[in-house]
Amino acid sequence: MTFENRSSERAGMLSVSAPGNFEEEMPAIAQWFAENPPGDTRG
Known about the structure:
Blueprint: H1 22-35
């Protein structure tokens, strides 16, 4: 997974590791993002 900062401002990312079945849900999550791409945030 990649992080894209779509602004000229400094940005960071917080990664949280939690127990559960998150990995099992990744294909569905990735599919949702493929069907719902982020719009232009420079606006």
